[in-house]
Design brief:
Blueprint (H helix, E strand, L loop, with lengths): L1 E5 L3 H11 L6 E5 L3 H11 L2 E2 L3 H5 L5 E4 L6 H10 L4 E4 L6 H12 L5 E4 L6 H12 L5 E9 L15 H17 L3 E9 L4 H5 L5 E8 L4 E7 L7 E8 L3 E4 L25 H4 L1 H16 L8 H20 L3 E2 L4
Parallel strand pairs: 1-2, 1-4, 2-3, 4-5, 5-6, 7-10
Antiparallel strand pairs: 7-11, 8-9, 8-13, 9-10, 11-12
Helix pairs in contact: 4-5, 5-11, 6-7, 7-11
């Protein structure tokens, strides 16, 4: 199959290289707002390139992958749907909740499959945890702890268009909580702080945050994260049940050290980036998209799923700003 990709920044170039290596993909064509950058990446990876998005969509594609800037996602999804090309888009669907809902209505009013990129759904650990919850082997789950700790902060110019900490970073936790538990969030209470570079605060953002979520079965979920975890990129989830407990991301690469005498675990090299931590999941995610393109698989993460995760992120941001409990039914 012939796959087109728009946006060849860090994650876009990574996706292009991944797509090239998939057995189902015969050709990859790339485009970018900066045509010269697309040409350079195409040359480096041995791919084709198109001078712009219109040319890309007109080049006989079987599938369309969006890895461009967040502000372009909604229009690019609409373009993929208009061209009747199965589409994959990195999260988020749009820059705000209202535009996200408009995209949901557009996609659900068509028969063009649109797959949103929440790669944790394709991580083996999270899939094992989801199976443990669904089988009942944990009993009833009473508490969940989830964290996303980046090893180093993004560049200053990224922050104004990021959507803020909850929408950019912990939105992955919100999506995977829904996926693993099969439950919905009914209320949130969130807080945050800026203890690192001043530019986070200058843009109204934070570099560390925490939230307490209550699910519709009264499971309590604590979510935390930071832009400053020099020990390494640390993404984990712990599920505590009445019959057993399970942890995702607790292995030799976990960016922690024990304070107990004689304990050497974990002893491996910590991950430094999300691409390092989730490399196999990204391969599985894009493999799933080729199956969507081929018509052999239903969309595994829909625009509606992305909308629900964004609602939780919006509720957390509202809670942080107003220092109060927020009911999801009012978002």
């Amino acid at each position: 199959m012939r796959i087109g990709l728009v946006g060849v920044g860090r994650i876009g170039a990574f996706h292009a290289a991944t797509l090239k290596g998939l057995p189902a993909v015969d050709q990859v064509v790339v485009a970018d707002a900066d045509a010269s950058r697309a040409e350079l990446v195409a040359k480096d990876l041995g791919l084709e390139y198109a001078p712009d998005v219109d040319a890309l969509l007109a080049s006989g594609l079987d599938g369309f992958v969006i890895a461009a800037a967040t502000s372009a996602h909604a229009d690019l999804i609409a373009a993929g749907v208009a061209a009747r090309i199965p589409t994959f888009c990195e999260k988020p669907v749009a820059i705000d909740l209202a535009d996200t809902l408009r995209v949901v209505e557009l996609v659900e009013g068509s028969d063009v499959p649109v797959h949103i990129g929440f790669q944790r759904r394709f991580d083996a650990g999270y899939q094992t945890a989801a199976a443990a919850v669904r089988s009942g082997e944990l009993g009833f789950v009473h508490h969940i702890r989830a964290n996303t700790n980046d090893a180093f902060p993004p560049a200053q110019e990224y922050i104004p268009t990021s959507g803020g900490f909850f929408r950019d970073c912990t939105v992955h936790d919100f999506d995977i909580i829904r996926y693993v538990t099969g439950r919905e969030v009914v209320s949130v209470f969130a807080t945050g702080a800026n203890r690192g570079e001043r530019f986070f605060g200058e843009y109204g953002d934070v570099d560390a945050a925490a939230a307490l979520l209550t699910l519709d079965d009264n499971t309590f979920v604590s979510v935390s994260g930071t832009r400053y975890n020099a020990a390494g990129h640390d993404v984990r989830m712990e599920l505590l049940g009445s019959l057993g407990s399970i942890a995702v991301g607790l292995d030799e690469h976990t960016a922690l050290r024990s304070a107990e005498a004689g304990v050497t675990f974990p002893g491996g090299q910590p991950h430094t980036t999300f691409m390092d931590r989730f490399r196999p999941a990204y391969v599985a995610e894009l493999t799933a998209f080729t199956e969507v393109v081929a018509g052999t698989r239903e969309v595994p993460c829909t625009v509606r799923d992305a909308y629900q995760a964004f609602r939780i992120a919006d509720a957390c941001e509202l809670s942080r700003r107003e220092n109060r409990l927020v009911q999801l039914g009012r978002v």
